[in-house]
């Protein structure tokens, strides 16, 4: 019995796993957005000045790198070894990343922690989508896929609120301590849900399978790691205990006696797993796992995706399309992508099974997801910018709250889209949804400085978010229906990757196009000296013209988003017309 068959052996067990997985997806999605509010405090906490935002970019890009680059490998592992083991492993990685972030004392530790959070949080999504595909036949997957999509999008609403609530009561580290506890509790909950046969085992037999020495070594390693990174004042100032925190050389907290103790305990834990009859983590299987999942191919694909992520994520969208090192990174990504294709053709066990995405609805879903992401990012980023430029010039919070209308409509649309997926063909439903969003963007492209004062803007934002939400379930359902069960995990992972890459590329490209229009119109209005020769330093006409020019830039971005949404609609109509098992 393989991993997926075991997960499906009990309907109740499978359903419970899905519920817990959805809660985990919600937690990870909320964490994606919570750092936006906490970033200034994080910067101060690791020794950066608030105005050194560019140096803090790795905090964001590190998470995205882990989220995107590792997804294909994680998806493939879920196909080979089951959804539940991957869900548990992803939650453990998410919890470990939360621990490192919460206990961090410098930027490097934060970046590593956020990377691990990205790997764990990202891995939850394809495993959960594949779990839905394992439990429901193609024609009945729409609603549960809509639920998963709604939960994921709900995180974008709850994340900032959750972060704000925690920051009112404690500092930024509390956010990640809560994530640590929640991640471990969810992992324990998923592990504890067993099938009917497992429930018949005696407690003594279950207890006998627990590797107590390994468990003790692992827990002690985590405790000493936490103490090493946090260096509590009560311990470091103690005359005797404080000696354990004195660095051997330099100022690194890792190069201390307690840091050395952490390393020894970690090595002891690994050695125990190599020698125990029933280890907690069977590391002896790792070579076989890497061979079965084509780790080399996954590494090449991850490097290719990582280069794209860093190229666009590190760039300052206000001044550049790609980062200064972008040309070199993209060249490296291209080389890795070519090597990956060659590897795919020659290896016995490719990370993306041959023919898995050959069906038109499969690759069509990836293209649709890319353009959906490119359009979606315009709303997420530029609607608050518009609000700040017009109605809330002195309130970042007020500008951000304008987007709530859009964000609330997203999960509602995802549920409706899941329900409609059983009644409307996937291509037609996706195209209609994206055309609604495109029409909303066209409306936004005509907003004037007073647009947010009237109900028209609320309608446009709600319809735009609703359209994006409706498109989630049919696109997911089309890809899962067009791929074999043995590729549901990696297929779902690539769908998420396509959307994330679309968001990164869309943000830089649309912003660059908008900036070009800004500079063109700025050149037309002339200088303050030309408009107000008597008092160029106080020229209302120039300031008004400059505001209008800024609106032209945002209008251009909204038009570009509308074009991306229309392209997604057209591709959906052409490629998702006939999906096996769906309408």
Describe the 3D structure.
The protein is mainly α and 583 residues long. The protein has 24 helices and no strands. Helix 2 packs parallel to helix 5, helix 15 (295-313) runs parallel beside helix 22 (488-525) and helix 19 (404-420) crosses helix 21 (455-482). Residues 196-208 have low confidence and may be disordered.
User: Which overall shape is indicated by the principal axes computed on the Cα atoms?
Assistant: globular
The N- to C-terminal Cα distance equals 32 Å
Query: How much of the residues is beta strand, in percent?
Result: under 5%
Mean pLDDT: 83
Number of strands: 0
Helix-strand sequence = HHHHHHHHHHHHHHHHHHHHHHHH
Largest sheet composition? none
How helix-rich are the residues, as a percent range? over 70%
> Poorly predicted ranges (pLDDT <50, ≥5 residues)?
196-208
| CA-based gyration radius | 25 Å
Q: What's the tally of helices?
A: 24
**Which structural category do the helix and sheet elements fall into?**
mainly alpha
Topology:
Layout: H1 3-7, H2 11-45, H3 57-69, H4 71-81, H5 83-102, H6 107-135, H7 142-169, H8 173-192, H9 196-199, H10 203-208, H11 212-230, H12 233-236, H13 257-275, H14 286-292, H15 295-313, H16 326-346, H17 360-390, H18 396-402, H19 404-420, H20 426-444, H21 455-482, H22 488-525, H23 528-531, H24 540-575
What's this entry about, in short?
This protein is mostly helical and 583 residues long. The chain has 24 helices and no strands.
Structural descriptors:
583 residues, mainly alpha
């Amino acid at each position: 019995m393989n991993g997926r068959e075991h997960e499906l052996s009990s309907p109740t067990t499978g359903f419970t796993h899905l519920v817990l997985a959805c809660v985990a997806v919600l937690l990870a999605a909320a964490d994606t957005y919570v750092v936006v509010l906490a970033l200034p405090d994080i910067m101060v906490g690791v020794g950066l000045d608030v105005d050194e935002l560019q140096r803090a970019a790795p905090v964001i890009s590190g998470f995205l790198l882990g989220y995107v680059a590792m997804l294909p490998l994680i998806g493939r592992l879920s196909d080979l070894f089951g959804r539940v083991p991957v869900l548990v492993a992803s939650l453990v990685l998410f919890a470990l990343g939360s621990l490192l972030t919460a206990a961090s004392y410098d930027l490097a530790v934060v970046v590593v922690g956020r990377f691990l959070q990205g790997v764990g949080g990202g891995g939850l999504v394809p495993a959960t989508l594949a779990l839905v595909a394992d439990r429901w036949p193609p024609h009945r997957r729409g609603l549960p896929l809509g639920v998963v999509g709604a939960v994921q999008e709900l995180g974008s609403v709850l994340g900032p609120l959750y972060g704000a609530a925690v920051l009112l009561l404690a500092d930024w580290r509390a956010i990640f301590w809560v994530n640590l506890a929640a991640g471990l509790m969810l992992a324990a909950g998923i592990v504890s849900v067993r099938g009917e046969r497992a429930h018949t085992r005696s407690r003594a037999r279950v207890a006998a399978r627990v590797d107590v020495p390994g468990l003790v070594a692992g827990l002690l390693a985590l405790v000493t790691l936490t103490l090493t990174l946090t260096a509590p004042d009560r311990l470091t100032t103690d005359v005797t205990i404080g000696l354990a925190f004195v660095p051997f050389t330099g100022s690194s907290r890792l190069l201390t006696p307690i840091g050395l103790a952490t390393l020894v305990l970690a090595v002891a834990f690994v050695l125990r797993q190599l020698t125990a009859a029933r280890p907690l983590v069977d590391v002896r299987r790792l070579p076989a796992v890497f061979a079965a999942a084509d780790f080399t191919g996954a590494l090449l694909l991850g490097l290719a995706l990582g280069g794209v992520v860093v190229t666009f994520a590190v760039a300052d969208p206000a001044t550049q399309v790609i980062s200064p090192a972008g040309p070199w990174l993209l060249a490296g990504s291209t080389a890795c992508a070519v090597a990956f294709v060659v590897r795919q053709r020659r290896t016995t066990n490719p990370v993306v099974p041959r023919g898995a995405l050959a069906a038109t609805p499969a690759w069509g879903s990836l293209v649709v997801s890319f353009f959906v992401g490119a359009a979606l990012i315009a709303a997420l980023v530029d609607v608050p910018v518009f609000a700040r430029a017009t109605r809330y010039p002195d309130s970042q919070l007020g500008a951000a709250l304008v987007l709530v209308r859009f964000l609330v409509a997203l999960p509602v649309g995802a549920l409706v889209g899941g329900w409609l997926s059983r009644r409307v063909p996937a291509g037609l439903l996706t195209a209609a949804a994206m055309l609604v969003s495109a029409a909303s963007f066209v409306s936004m492209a005509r907003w004037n400085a007073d647009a947010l004062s009237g109900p028209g803007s609320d309608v446009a934002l709600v319809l735009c978010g609703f359209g994006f939400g409706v498109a989630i379930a049919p696109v997911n359902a089309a890809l899962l229906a067009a791929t074999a069960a043995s590729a549901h995990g990696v297929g779902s992972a690539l769908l998420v990757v396509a959307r994330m890459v679309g968001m990164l590329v869309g943000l830089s490209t649309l912003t660059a196009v908008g900036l070009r229009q800004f500079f063109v119109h700025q050149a037309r209005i002339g200088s303050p000296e030309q408009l107000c020769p008597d008092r160029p330093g106080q020229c209302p006409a120039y300031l008004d013209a400059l505001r209008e020019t800024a609106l032209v830039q945002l209008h251009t971005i909204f038009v570009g988003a509308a074009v991306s949404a229309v392209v997604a609609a057209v591709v959906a109509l052409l490629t998702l017309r006939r999906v096996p098992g769906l309408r």
